[in-house]
Amino acid sequence: MTNxxxxxxxxxSYHYMNMIRDNPDGELFKFFGTHPDPNHLSLxxxxxSEQEPVLHGTEYVDYAxxxxxxxxxxxFIPRLKMLEIAKEIHRFDAIGTKVMVCRDIELLESMLExxxxxxxxxxxxxxxxxxxxxxxxxxxxxxxxxxxxHSGHKVCFKPTNSEGGMGxxxxxxxxxxxxxxxxxxxxxxxxxxxxxxxxxxxxxxxxMVMELLEEDEISIDCLADSQGKLIVAVPRRKASGRIYxxxxxxxxxxxxxxVAGKCRxxxxxxxxxxxxxxxxxxxEINPRMSGGLFITCLSGVNMPYLAVQTIMGRTFExxxxxxxxxxxxxxxxxxxxx
Length: 338
Hints:
Layout lengths: L1 E6 L5 H9 L7 E7 L12 E4 L5 H14 L4 E4 L3 H6 L1 H6 L3 E2 L5 H8 L1 H8 L10 E4 L2 H13 L4 E5 L9 E3 L5 H6 L5 E2 L1 H8 L8 E5 L5 E8 L5 E9 L5 E3 L3 H14 L3 E10 L2 E8 L6 H4 L6 H9 L13 E3 L11
């Protein structure tokens, strides 16, 4: 029996635990989870769970180390506080817990701060980078916006350290304010409204002001060995609504290969690109399992389980993804403990 711990994960970790549990080799696993919300759906797939305290820095690492020690955790798959955990990885090594995290602190730190990671990849030929500026004052924002518009771009912005789509906005000066009030909540916002809000403070947390990428959005889910050598990559294209297409596209596979060769990110990671004028440009790279990985795994590649095999030092046949798959997802009711 192998004990695996997921800390404060998204709800989709429910799928990942069950994909590892329902493995083709009949291996037995016990799952442990923590979350501040004891009713969080991620915990419903766990054999044992507990309410996680809200801690920061070394105090959080102390908690995670103690949890792993108390429950004889063999594999720890963190989402929260990955950087802090990686910085003190030796503490987990000392108690025999393998941690599924990138140990290259400089690389991990740059991936969590999008502007730093863009700087790392600029002019390397690994992947095209969008035009962007990093700003933290309203005057810098004005200059960045004017520069991008002058270059012929539509403009968007997001925080440098956000996760997923948090804080992402599109500047649209033609939006109808009344129609917007009666419609769905929109990501669009007029330029003058942004200036008005940012002008309320002398300095704000860093924003990346970027060219808006208007064409297809692709997530490339990747599996690598413990040294970051790419094993398999599967592109997932977001179509309309909740429809996704798993397609083999050489230029995307080449991007995955170049990113892996340059960065050496271990285990499972996700590359997000978006096309503009026919060119795929980088949005971000997540050094963890992505929110949509359970759809990618419909290709026949069980990445969560193979990542576990990898960190345990086991060998397996080279997985061969199936492509040409159209997929979506539905909400399913589940009975909750208690």
